[in-house]
## 1
Amino acid sequence: MTTSLDFYFDFSSPYGYLASEWIDVLAEKYGRAVVWRPVLLGILFKSTGSAPLAQIPLKGAYSLHDFARSARYLGVDYRQPTDFPIATHHAARAFYWLADRDTSLARKFARACYRAYFVEDRNISTPQVLHDLADALAVDPAQLSDAVNAPAYRERLKSETDLAMQRGVFGSPYFIVDGEPFWGVDRLPQLEKWLSEGGF
Amino acid sequence: MTTSLDFYFDFSSPYGYLASEWIDVLAEKYGRAVVWRPVLLGILFKSTGSAPLAQIPLKGAYSLHDFARSARYLGVDYRQPTDFPIATHHAARAFYWLADRDTSLARKFARACYRAYFVEDRNISTPQVLHDLADALAVDPAQLSDAVNAPAYRERLKSETDLAMQRGVFGSPYFIVDGEPFWGVDRLPQLEKWLSEGGF
């Protein structure tokens, strides 16, 4: 019996988006289920004293260049969002509300959020964009809006982020499978070797 | 006509060491010369506010794990040095002194330094280890020791590090080819695609 693979990400993370376009394909190839787990990178960054990449001198300019080049390398559409980075707690809470009802639908919603933000340059921190994305998936926007503002899902996202931190997650994307951690979309080749060989 | 490829690294950088074992093979495959350029990461870190990986909470523990796993992935011998990180200005000055005489010999010395430190756990910040490494390459240890302490090579290393910073280098390894920057040993696949296709 194989264990599932945890995929931690923040909806504002370019490398998280790039990974999201490949992780299910990769895991399925080796018969692993993927558990998508959005978290708040801003909270995780406090534990390591990190700052958003794009705001760091030198590294920021390099990163903007590398986001787009890595997307081309991986064959994924990418457009640098105008508003970047953004707050993602609403998108993440909406995800968990959906996941409690239908994990497949939640994943579709997550993909729609990522593509809206990183391909169509729509700011998914705004209620209107989340409303439209819900609507397109036949999810009642009013119910989604209620969930996003409900104390239960505020707590849920906090707990998921706390749990991630306890498990050592400090960036996005971050994968854990068989207890083995992989940080970054550039670790997908090592992750594949791990899945293929059962460790290395 | 093709331009050469600049390979920036610090002698105390595990990912720099891993890259050093592959960069010449890769570049030769596409007819590019490699210019090895040791710099002081501690100075470069000041421009981005970075700290040595191993000293950062969470990221430090992950990195120690990732150094060894990345080495296995790349088929490179690796042993975590007991003293880590270390000061590398002596090794770097010795490199430039040798490079001014014989670039091929300087590269052999650089490889010997990296393997002594990351395979044999010998502390290359100590005069005795540098002495022994020079001796093994038929380089006069006394002359090398003089060069390491000479103002000319102190200045040389400072200038090389300043130049690197002006070119945007903020980590190790860092490659620049055709004006295109690549940071990290995990960018070797993108670098290869670049060399193979003349950009992408």
## 2
Amino acid sequence: MPDAQPTPDAYEPTGRTVPTRSRERASYDRSVVHAILDEEYVCHLGFIRDGAPVVLPTLYARVGDRVYVHGSTGSRPLRLAGEPDPGLAVCLTVTRVDGLVLARSAFHHSLNYRSVVIHGTAHQVTDPREKSESLDALVEAVVPGRAGDSRPANARELAATAVLRLELAEVSAKIRTGPPNDEPEDLELPYWTGVVPVARTYGTPVPADDLAPSVGLPGYIAAM
Amino acid sequence: MPDAQPTPDAYEPTGRTVPTRSRERASYDRSVVHAILDEEYVCHLGFIRDGAPVVLPTLYARVGDRVYVHGSTGSRPLRLAGEPDPGLAVCLTVTRVDGLVLARSAFHHSLNYRSVVIHGTAHQVTDPREKSESLDALVEAVVPGRAGDSRPANARELAATAVLRLELAEVSAKIRTGPPNDEPEDLELPYWTGVVPVARTYGTPVPADDLAPSVGLPGYIAAM
């Protein structure tokens, strides 16, 4: 769903996207936010049910200035979101851990990470074309190239699947990089200090038992 | 904080820990829940602020039937949690992704994962011994062996740090394993199908620039 209007380079900070701490780690830069969102595909979606917070992991995909999540039409947040109004107040958070930051002091231990927090109201997608494109985007977010190399959803499957749309408007990134920040008086302590890099890696693909031997591993999977 | 009373082998399911979908993936087994919590150290903590959900990534550690999170005394959830009552209604969720499940149909694409969702009320830890032990546990959760090989927090640092305690009572795990579940009529389709394993891996530790050459890499880091 590309937007015909020019988009600003940064999202507008709001009361709830300005962190109470470590403000120097916050970014509202559109390209920074998008880059983090595009590298990950699992988010934690928070909403309120019966007055209490609920946080569930789920897949998401970004398309332009929107993110989409999907689920069974019977699943909790999808039902709560109504169709399509009044929508569901959500907080969608994405986190990548890049390193363990080991300071000389326990207090200054930290993580290097990149996170995005999106506040807003999620709405059910009712337009068939938007729904179909967002479902493709959800497959592509996990394995680029896969949407065109699998059987598309049929009418029954589309009817059983609900998609929620959340606008990227009240959104911020938070990033920590670099070495530990030890106190000057700790620099001579005899403890190892530095960063242990953390990465997500993919192992050798395991074919299903019922896969015909004639079907080879596609290049887009081998390249992961 | 070991509990002197015998603990049951499973947590009691409640209205909000029984999933609306895929109930066969849910587990209330105490050892299953603990094993997932002990393998990870980043959670997503959900709470309500000004009537809206907020989800923030943060470190956690399990000690017995409790989990702890910490933060600056000025940080949002820590302030909201009060001292120590009335506490803060939270949902603390932990997710590990183990594999990408590529079915022949887009609809049956999935993830292999293990997650734990804890509902409850978080309270500030005020007992100095519990606070100190929970902070050690938070360091140990990330790098086992590190709490004893770094400078412990001093009085000023302890005063600047708040710790929240959440009881493991209303808690469940959810697990998906195994191959894709394709429809019988799709088995002859010419698409590769199987699972791509996903793992978290640690790279070569990067010493801080100001680390004295005489301080070698400890075995507990090299073994990660």
## 3
Amino acid sequence: MHFRTNIELMSGYVPGEQPRGQKFIKLNTNENPYPPSPKVTAAIAATLEKGLQRYPDPLGTAFRVRAAEVLGVEPDWILCGNGSDDILTIVTRAFVDSGDVVRYPAPSYILYKTLADIQGASCDVVRYEEDWSLGYEFTAPLPRLNLAYLANPNSPSGTLLAPGEVAAIADNLPCPLLVDEAYVDFASTNCIDLVRTNPRIMVSRTLSKSYALAGLRFGYLVAQPQVIAQLRKVKDSYNCDALALAGATAAIDDQAWLRENVARVRATRIKLFHGLEDRGFKPLASQANFVWTTHPSNAHEEIYLRLKDQGVLVRYMRYAGWGDGLRISVGTDAENEALLAMLG
Amino acid sequence: MHFRTNIELMSGYVPGEQPRGQKFIKLNTNENPYPPSPKVTAAIAATLEKGLQRYPDPLGTAFRVRAAEVLGVEPDWILCGNGSDDILTIVTRAFVDSGDVVRYPAPSYILYKTLADIQGASCDVVRYEEDWSLGYEFTAPLPRLNLAYLANPNSPSGTLLAPGEVAAIADNLPCPLLVDEAYVDFASTNCIDLVRTNPRIMVSRTLSKSYALAGLRFGYLVAQPQVIAQLRKVKDSYNCDALALAGATAAIDDQAWLRENVARVRATRIKLFHGLEDRGFKPLASQANFVWTTHPSNAHEEIYLRLKDQGVLVRYMRYAGWGDGLRISVGTDAENEALLAMLG
């Protein structure tokens, strides 16, 4: 029984804790604290009513038509995915062969390494500068470098590179650039416009965060049509189910709900930031639905464990050779106040 | 913009026609003609009611616990997938590297070639014997042969190899064997018991056919726990959404519904078989929810087109170097009678 060596050697991606049963204030996996738009629930219920015995539309046409209008592109610029992890997987499989190299910044989304491991590729990891910008190393030539990932806003930092900086990176990079915009609806800018002028820029999005649909698994990619056409060959034919397609279409259609939800999350984000500062923490200004913070005591793991004991889950992150800290998702105002009260 | 060469060269899998809008009697993609168990719909509605803002259980524990009871294995013998295509993808990525070889019989499920193409692997295709058994070539040693697929029951033939024959194949094969049991609930036997005695046998299942849940995307794999542990590293963390997990758990729990549905489909299958014989066709006895048939006239494509004109979609299949024919899904009795009436 011989698995591929790279599979046997890899440790595998470990997602944030998803406790079942126990009642936690859950601020560890950047979920939206509010339920999704009632229009999403209604659309799913209506599809459920029609029965599930038929295959869904393999290309998610209804979603792509509506999303294209919202984003100002054409439907054939959009690829639907079973969450944006599926999108990241599809793009990686299309560009990265065994023995190739991928590049990504650190600290960032730890899944990028897993995706490279599964392909049997190696990773060229470029440390962020002190100010969370990216230096020359991120665009330097490298043999067999075939894909670069850039989470923007980045996790865990919540920092954002401006579209002009991303455009310059893509222009200088010797390979395609996947801009992972999982958190972009909480930010001040995005990179969709760059896709029109540079075919090597791909932008991935998810409905898990800003649309409050982590449980539904829906993400999408925006790229030029000749890129989408190749990627379609790699995806599973029916990668998005009928309920997810109905819910996602209703979600993208309800931009008023999105604006209102994002405004609420941002308002609480400011309170979280100042609340942490007031308690002696050193948070970073965030463009996402979480705040990255350290504390001068460096007792991050103890703080995490103490909060967990008291029923609040935040994410303790330790990056080898870099340091550690806490990534705290923005909850409701009540959850935020409970957290801050525990921090003294 | 350099895609992997194997991706650029491949043509991609084309699923059966899924017409939107138009009213067809749809007998071309082996969907179940009946809606799923009402308990499935109720379970999904209850989960929907709770909101979708939280991530689902990454390992689908509730489903695995219930399925393990039904199948007589332990929960850690089961891997959940976003349809059994996701399961086939995960297994392929775990075993098959660029330059490796996969083996499968012909004619069979055309996705196997696509999965090999995406990995940059080559295919060793072994023709079925006249009686739909598999000869020595299917187990012969071959350098870099790392995975064999066997659809059982097979599509398009609807034929079945007995568990003893499958066990012998697995014992002689120099690589793991993935037994694709998408249609097995309509058959007289299955290969789950073989997994206990041979760690190189993996059995995949889907809820798309016998549970009438093609729109939900849910499948699973049964294999020994040390195999499942490696495969977990390859799957997307949250590959199954909260609604699919709830629906799948309710579906596997409702074995009474399954038995009743399978009995109905089998009863219509017999009528379809004899109806085709009575009209001069040469159908094969089927262990699945479809019937493969040829006609002495060999006018298979014309028959397909004529039926389509009259509002009935069946699947016209042509296999290079082998021949062509019609694969007709078992519909309701009324659909079946309408089809047979058109065939004269």
## 4
Amino acid sequence: MQHTILTGDRPTGPLHLGHYVGSLRNRIELQGKHRQFIMIADAQALTDNMGDLAKVRRNVLEVALDYLAVGLDPAKSTIFIQSQISELAELAFYYLNLVTVARLERNPTVKEEVRSRGFERDLPAGFLTYPVSQAADITAFRSTLVPVGTDQQPMIEQTNEIVRRLNTTTGQDVLVECAALIPEFGRLPGIDGQGKMSKSAGNAIALSASPDEIKAAVREMFTDPKHLYIDDPGQVEGNVVFTYLDAFDPDRATVEELKAHYRRGGLGDMAVKRRLEGVLQDLLAPIRARRAQYAKDPGEVLNMLAKGCDTAREVAAQTLHDVRRALGLTYFA
Amino acid sequence: MQHTILTGDRPTGPLHLGHYVGSLRNRIELQGKHRQFIMIADAQALTDNMGDLAKVRRNVLEVALDYLAVGLDPAKSTIFIQSQISELAELAFYYLNLVTVARLERNPTVKEEVRSRGFERDLPAGFLTYPVSQAADITAFRSTLVPVGTDQQPMIEQTNEIVRRLNTTTGQDVLVECAALIPEFGRLPGIDGQGKMSKSAGNAIALSASPDEIKAAVREMFTDPKHLYIDDPGQVEGNVVFTYLDAFDPDRATVEELKAHYRRGGLGDMAVKRRLEGVLQDLLAPIRARRAQYAKDPGEVLNMLAKGCDTAREVAAQTLHDVRRALGLTYFA
């Protein structure tokens, strides 16, 4: 069965290996099989970046370059910019009537994000209501599958609640429910082993990292702090170098041998890091090369995005039309 | 100086004498002198009427008929339907990032309306955020004057806060501030003297009332409950019949004579009511006749609304364009 998938990223910084493992890699695999919409979520980025409009704007093109560099294919996936699809904002506006303030305040994902941003006192209304905006994005394309991390599952529940409320309120099957697609690998830890990889934590390796940056990042990488001598037994669990080998080394058998060797002692961190560095250089070299190629002609990238926006707008406009008609908001022939 | 004015009504029931005194009458006077946009606020009506979509839809045409019947002239005022101007929803969507949840919860008008609707526990997000939507409506037309009752003044403050925040955030003078235009007469009491006239309170005289309905309403009207005998002195203050004479009788001198006579005794309620009934029949007869005339051709009324929507959309689209550009959300030539 062919699914419709909505996925995307907020353009607030360059994409990194965490994005690659958690989503980009899966999208490449999904793009041949399903109808995939990939959204550069600039409007959502504004909900907590009104103070840095230039950053959001600049990163729209950067994220598009990252997409093309890893092999997302505009011929197979519809890549578009959220703010260019007015229909998404209008759907969100109507959905606001289908969800209570108390329900939004209870959303565990929002609660955690409000806490981590220190928004307790000055929470922008647009941030509290962004699950409604997400519901608009998801339903606009009649998405049936939405790749999310486990921490984002409440967003899917919220969306389906809105779907059911709209259908019940209007007595029509206007919108379709969606299911979460939880990625196999999940969150990649940062190179410091402290939480997930993120640009703001300073523990990321960007997809556009230079060979020297990759080298330096692997050298700094957190291993087993108790593994002081090569002959000592080392721990593989929580050892970022092995986590990355699991995530990126195509030679599974060799990785398992290395783990066994490391556990029983006699394998030094330097040797394992050399292997990982090779793996990452091999992975990122062609991505970097393709990125440089696309970056030479930003006009062509913008053309690609404009076409994606046209396709996305057409689909979203049909959904909006259906929602408006169901709400009784069409008066003219 | 020519102002731009935004005003309008929620299509949740027929308009009545309270609307006439508090706003419609003023609009007729303003329509020659200023640029006036009159909005049938169907989207705003949905914020607390999702359970009765048909009512909102039906009343859009009814309100338009009331407008034409009282003499609002589509050649002088732009009459349009809120939901047909997508740009308003999109502006509201961006403005949500410029106001905090705490600020919306503190809004005295919203607080009072939440209380009166019993929404404390199940407040729809769209209702909490409707001041943001109003700010979008007001600013979309670059309105400088907004006719509101004193109880709605916090909405004007909220709008101007959003205007200033957008201008500060973007470092550009994108939006213009507005001022409240408080009507001279204010709220008309209901015929029972219990609070303001409203359809839901069952104390209203609709603009489309029949001669018999007018007669019956005046007969029921609250006067001075202590004025038992014609010869007794009567009270004019709080006496609804006199309040209505003040509001509707064009012969000010005679009304003052009647008040003096009633106060010193010797003037019966029946006599004053007969005069008021004559005044109201004279006022409403031509309105009813014009309404019946327009109601014969709903297609023509819809045509008028469609033209108004086109004009409104053009103005709102320019504002949205300016806001999006200031936010950095334009990528394509």
